[in-house]
Design brief:
By secondary structure, the protein is mainly β. 0% of the residues lie in helices and 55% in strands. The structure holds tryptophan.
């Protein structure tokens, strides 16, 4: 188990085209600062950083973290 959560990596694999990986800011104000679009099969490896406190995934993807694996679902 890792001890510094701010350096944790997460792995996101898109299961469909057009998955969005959105970075949210750290600090008093929580807002989107970056959005990355992944097509089916594409993988993004991202870290929680000084600037990024949360990551939002929209669309169907497999997400692996130090806490386990989860699959997000597409809105129907
Ligand atoms: N410049 C951002 C940062 O250092 C880059 C980044 C890190 C990011 N993790 C992310 C962008 C997750 C989107 C999602 O925080």
């Amino acid at each position: 188990m890792s001890t510094n959560s701010s350096h944790d990596f997460i792995v996101i694999k898109a299961v469909e085209d057009g998955v969005n990986v959105i970075g949210l800011t750290r600090g008093t104000d929580t807002r989107f600062h970056h959005s990355e679009k992944l097509d089916k099969g594409e993988v993004m490896i991202a870290q929680f950083t000084e600037h990024t406190s949360a990551i939002k995934v929209r669309g169907k993807a497999i997400i692996q973290t130090g806490h386990g694996e989860i699959e997000s679902e597409a809105k129907r």
